[in-house]
Amino acid sequence: MTISNTIVDILTNPKHSLWIAPLLVVADAVLSALIIKKVPYTEIDWTTYMQQIALYQAGERDYTAIKGDTGPLVYPAAHVYIYSFLYELTNKGQDIVLGQVIFAGIYITTLVVVLSCYIRAGAPPYLLPLLVLSKRLHSVYMLRLFNDGIATFAMWLGIFLFQRRQLTAATTVWSLGVGVKMSLLLLAPGVAIVVALSGGIWTAVPLALNAILTQVLLGIPFLRENAIGYASRAFELTRQFLYEWTVNWRFVGEEVFESPIFSINLLVLHVVLILAFLATRWIRPSGEELDFFAQKFIEGRSTRHPLSSKYITTTLLTSMVIGMLCARSLHYQFYAYLGWTTPFLLWQAKLHPVLIYAVWAMQEWGWNVFPSTNASSAAVVACLAVQVVMLLLNDDSSQGLSEDIKKSVGEQKTK
């Protein structure tokens, strides 16, 4: 074997990921330590988080009365409990460096889970360097201490558990992530179809109730005090975002951005794309048309379909990216949900490795321009659109069969 063939084998053979991944984790841990030591921390929301937690610690349970310098508390209860723990660990939020170290730990732990998901899905090693090179991703975790980093950990841990067919644990972790930040609701369509294919309505209903009950249990202290106030603040679906902070739609202009028609069009596009993927991609493992699949599901006649880790990961991540493409406004911290998602989806969309790196670099640039410009926001939307459109056109993961089943079928055919 020539040197060039050896290099190609290392970059493309998934078995090499098993030794490449640990090296990347160690390298990224060193890089994270250097970032904390050398790059100045930027205050954005941490102080407000701590001010809000101080009110909670003092006994306040009415969500509408919990506020800080940059505004009211607008995250669900799990956020409060997690940052209360951080409040105690960091001397009421004053030990910023310790907070950064903790978030570096969350970042590295999440990276390990992400790499595990990639390896289980058979992703090639040439994708893995992209998981540790993002400037914006390091910033979200270690220089901003945003709760999106914690929600992202829940997202990827949930995906890992779904890959292992641990449905109850997976839906519970996902719901806990929603309890940190409502952004994870964008995974709901993907979660729903994975659960539906994994056992039909008799599996889906208990898991849905489990996810809902998790939210109720988390919110009990606040629901008792002011249920409407808690629900309206923690799960506000009609929140108006400011044009000055948008990362994605600046290029359409402020008048269009603030138009109700624009918001409605995005919602319609979101629904259309979900239905398109549902009808043409996501239900392929069932081998049925959408109407027949839906009828069997409702009647309780659905059967369990074996799903590959690649299918599960692609479906859940596609659900997230569709939601981000159709979001009224994205802020810089939302890159936490996208940074580790894009390389996998571009690979699943069958883009050439050079194009994968090019789209990733364009996306990374778009998310690092501050404040956003017409060009950077157009780049952000274009990269999201490329992922969604190319997946719709080229994705083949929806065959869905687990690796073990495919191997068994192949052996039977050779006999």
TrEMBL record:
Pfam families documented for this protein: ALG3 (PF05208)
Annotated Gene Ontology cellular component terms: endoplasmic reticulum membrane
Reactions the enzyme catalyzes: an alpha-D-Man-(1->2)-alpha-D-Man-(1->2)-alpha-D-Man-(1->3)-[alpha-D-Man-(1->6)]-beta-D-Man-(1->4)-beta-D-GlcNAc-(1->4)-alpha-D-GlcNAc-diphospho-di-trans,poly-cis-dolichol + a di-trans,poly-cis-dolichyl beta-D-mannosyl phosphate = an alpha-D-Man-(1->2)-alpha-D-Man-(1->2)-alpha-D-Man-(1->3)-[alpha-D-Man-(1->3)-alpha-D-Man-(1->6)]-beta-D-Man-(1->4)-beta-D-GlcNAc-(1->4)-alpha-D-GlcNAc-diphospho-di-trans,poly-cis-dolichol + a di-trans,poly-cis-dolichyl phosphate + H(+)
Keywords: Endoplasmic reticulum, Glycosyltransferase, Membrane, Transferase, Transmembrane, Transmembrane helix
Chain ranges passing through the membrane: 18-36, 96-121, 141-162, 174-195, 201-223, 264-283, 311-332
EC number: 2.4.1.258
Biological role stated in the UniProt entry: Dol-P-Man:Man(5)GlcNAc(2)-PP-Dol alpha-1,3-mannosyltransferase that operates in the biosynthetic pathway of dolichol-linked oligosaccharides, the glycan precursors employed in protein asparagine (N)-glycosylation. The assembly of dolichol-linked oligosaccharides begins on the cytosolic side of the endoplasmic reticulum membrane and finishes in its lumen. The sequential addition of sugars to dolichol pyrophosphate produces dolichol-linked oligosaccharides containing fourteen sugars, including two GlcNAcs, nine mannoses and three glucoses.
Entry's Gene Ontology molecular function annotations: dol-P-Man:Man(5)GlcNAc(2)-PP-Dol alpha-1,3-mannosyltransferase activity
InterPro entries for this protein: Glycosyltransferase_ALG3 (IPR007873)
Name the record gives this protein: Dol-P-Man:Man(5)GlcNAc(2)-PP-Dol alpha-1,3-mannosyltransferase
Species classification: Eukaryota, Fungi, Dikarya, Ascomycota, Pezizomycotina
Family to which this protein belongs: Belongs to the glycosyltransferase ALG3 family.
Enzyme class: transferase
Organism: Talaromyces stipitatus (strain ATCC 10500 / CBS 375.48 / QM 6759 / NRRL 1006)
